[in-house]
Design a protein that fits this description.
The complex is a heterodimer of chains A (291) and B (379). With 291 residues, chain A is mainly alpha-helical. Chain A has helices at residues 2-14, 16-38, 41-82, 86-99, 103-119, 126-141, 143-158, 160-167, 172-183, 186-214, 228-232, 235-249, 254-257, 262-288. Chain B is mainly alpha-helical and 379 residues long. In chain B, α1 runs antiparallel to α15 and α4 crosses α13 (304-321). Chain A binds chain B through residues 13, 93, 96-97, 99-105, 108, 112, 198, 202-203, 205-206, 209-210, 213-215, 217, 232, 238, 241-242, 244-246, 248-249, 268, 271-273, 275-276, 279, 283, 286, and chain B through 9, 12-13, 17, 156, 195-196, 199-201, 203-204, 207-212, 229-230, 233-234, 237, 241, 309-310, 312-313, 316-317, 320-321, 323, 333-334, 336-337, 348, 351-352, 355-356, 359.
């Protein structure tokens, strides 16, 4: 009996993506339970809202990135093949230009636009702001997916697979969309999406932290959807983080961290633990499918 | 040929972006001056009324009443005029405040300051890039060797240790048993903390240590740039993947058959020493890993651009989030706040140049390596 359990545990232990998804879920639930016991309700509710907003935006970024990259990849493929002139070079040039803008700067400029739209009243509800934020971020992260899709198409085009299908009379768009990108690349694309999810969480938290620390005059931070980054920028959260440093000099203070400084510690833990877990899930997934 | 093409493309984009940015800067400056002049012209008469104290709400209300009596049909216009006066005075106040700080628009003195900050940023960036280049390879090679040695994670080793070592209640045996377990547990904990630090955004680490020592120094910024934001782990993982995929290729087995060393034991003479792993220029003569490493490094060069771009993003986040005064990206944030868009454009242009020059450098490196591999004369 015990050997069966050990064998099953071993099997599960080998599937690192499932294991880390479970560890992430359990870790988040555990800290939520702890907050339920020891953190005041208004702060806890804000953290819950920040958590959901952060992950909803990150999920939307994945959707937008997938759509954008699919469209751009097809456009590049067919422009390159059929016309071979200015539109292809132009699109390539624009993409390279986006690539040369540091992601955080691009997103910051996007935030300025969102702030302007809020100030003029064109953007009033939270949901629209969330969608626009996700779209802005996806503009600066989707290129990784484009590169991967183009790599996959180039790889299959070199093999007999592509020509054999063409000879069979299967139209090129169908080979590219269905057979190469959908059927034979979904594992690679899914793995890339997991890593984009991680990058988005990191960038979103960072930009919200920066914006909340020093970029709001006309539009108050209250108007922006609450995220983990903006919550971490609050003065009481920052004080909670500073308390970690206190414990280095005064180790006896450590018990206070889990009771008195719960807000900042929870937010920082959720961010770091999520980033670590996403990395591990992505790695486990790559190992499972031998990518 | 390929490099020349990419060189042309880089030069074209540098020229185009510079032109566009300069045009935007001129437009922004002209529009600002025009708007200011226009605003002032409309309310000039009222601002010159020295007998009205605009800070006094009573006098402001009195002026409003007077205007409404003189022009009864223009109540809305009168309201908007007074609002305009308020806005103009507030803008003037903010301008003075920003001048009192260092927030004036683009001037000669400002340019000198920006250039100084720019070079400081470049210095931090170059040092961090070199350090991460070394650290990424070292971590990946170390992990690869551990994998080849069939070593498990410390936690798995601990579980195996507990399962396979019977616990004996005999004086020294108990101590030995506990020491063995504690050693593995300690290593697992240190590794876990290391992972947490590596994935922490820089501002979380910086705020954690702010009470203990000065986190505003250039040295601390470089340290943060190297260890935080997940950069090191992510790119080390990528390099490790290249090493693994290279090690599966056919030439590796051929090389082993031809008697190249293939042991990954760090203690053996025909193995791989830690000294070689840690050395700046990694060199494993007579070992099959030498070729695996060189080929993996060639592939890694393609990701350098991406890594450099992510590193710049990380450094920008550090400077902005930590409000490190006198640094380029803090200045960028301040000037966005004060709406000095000419300064903002100059800083953005500077950052764009850094990325572009890095891309150019990476392309050249790749081109040179390709020629070495393909036996083509360097043109």
């Amino acid at each position: 009996m015990s050997s069966t359990i050990i064998a099953r545990f071993k099997e599960f232990y080998q599937q690192k993506d499932y294991l880390w998804a479970l560890i992430w879920g359990a870790g988040i639930l555990m800290i939520w339970g702890w907050d339920l016991l020891y953190l005041n309700e208004p702060a806890r509710r804000q953290i819950e809202e920040g958590f959901f907003n952060t992950f909803i935006i990150a999920f939307m970024v994945i959707v937008f990135s997938a759509l954008l990259s699919w469209g751009v990849t097809l456009a590049l493929y067919f422009l390159e093949d059929k016309i071979k002139n200015i539109p292809y070079s132009g699109l390539n040039f624009i993409l390279n230009l986006i690539r040369s803008v540091p992601q955080i700067i691009g997103i910051l400029l996007g935030y300025l636009l969102i702030t302007y739209l809020m100030a003029t009243g064109s953007l009033s509800d939270t949901f629209s702001t969330i969608i626009l934020t996700a779209f802005v971020i996806s503009l600066f992260v989707f290129l990784e997916l484009v590169d991967l899709m183009r790599e996959r198409i180039a790889y299959f085009k070199k093999s007999d697979f592509f020509n054999a299908m063409r000879v069979c009379g299967i139209p090129e768009p169908r080979i590219i969309n269905r057979d190469i990108l959908w059927k034979n690349s979904w594992v690679h694309l899914f793995n890339k999406m997991i890593s984009i999810f991680g990058i988005t969480v990191f960038l979103l938290c960072s930009i919200d932290f920066i914006v909340s620390v020093g970029l709001t005059t006309d539009v108050s931070t209250v108007n922006f959807p609450v995220t983990l980054g903006s919550l971490l920028a609050k003065i009481d959260s920052k004080q909670d983080i500073l308390a970690i440093g206190n414990t280095i000099g005064n180790i006896g203070y450590i018990s206070n961290i889990f009771f008195k400084h719960l807000q900042g510690i929870t937010i920082a833990f959720v961010i770091v633990f999520s980033l670590l877990s996403i990395y591990k899930i992505s790695n486990g997934f790559a190992r499972r499918y031998h990518l | 040929m390929k490099f020349k093409k990419s060189l042309n493309e880089h030069i074209l984009s540098l020229a185009l972006v510079t032109l566009v940015m300069l045009a935007v800067m001129i437009i922004v400056r002209t529009a600002d001056t025009r708007r200011e002049r226009q605003n002032f012209d409309e309310i000039e008469t009222y601002l010159k009324m020295n007998f009205v104290d605009f800070d006094d709400p009573f006098e402001k209300a009195l002026l409003k009443e007077t205007l409404n009596i003189f022009e009864p049909g223009n109540k809305t216009r009168n309201d908007s005029l007074l609002a305009q006066v308020d806005r103009y005075r507030r803008d003037q106040f903010l301008k003075n405040v920003s001048r009192a700080g260092k927030g004036t628009g683009l001037s000669g003195q400002k340019m000198v300051e920006l250039i100084r900050m720019y070079f400081k940023f470049i210095l931090a960036y170059l040092i961090t890039l070199v350090l991460t280049y070394y650290a990424v390879q070292t971590l990946a090679v170390n992990r690869f060797i551990h994998t080849k040695q069939n070593r498990q994670s410390y936690l798995a080793e601990l579980i195996r240790y507990i399962r396979h070592h019977p616990f004996l209640w005999q004086g020294k045996a108990v101590m030995r048993y506990l020491a063995g377990a504690a050693n593995l547990l300690g290593k697992a904990t240190v590794k876990g903390i290391g992972y947490f630090i590596a994935f922490s955004p820089a501002y979380v680490i910086a705020y954690s240590f702010r009470t203990e020592f000065n986190t505003d120094s250039l040295l601390f910024m470089i340290l943060l740039g190297v260890i935080s934001n997940g950069l090191l782990i992510n790119y080390a993982n990528r390099f490790y993947t290249f090493l693994v995929s290279e090690s599966r290729k056919g030439y590796v087995e051929t090389a082993v058959v031809k008697n190249l060393h293939s042991s990954y034991d760090t203690g053996r003479k025909d193995g791989i020493s830690y000294r070689a792993v840690l050395s700046w220029k990694k060199w494993f003569p007579g070992h099959v890993f030498e070729h695996i490493f060189i080929n993996a490094r060639y592939q890694y060069l393609t990701t350098i651009k991406e890594q450099a771009s992510f590193l710049i993003t990380g450094l920008i986040i550090i400077e902005m989030a930590l409000n490190i005064q006198g640094h380029l990206c803090y200045e960028l944030l301040q000037n966005i706040l004060y709406r000095h868009f000419d300064v903002v454009i100059v800083i953005l242009l500077g950052l764009f140049y850094i990325v572009k020059l890095t891309e150019l450098g990476a392309d050249y490196l790749m081109h040179r390596e390709s020629q070495k591999f393909e036996n083509i004369a360097i043109d």
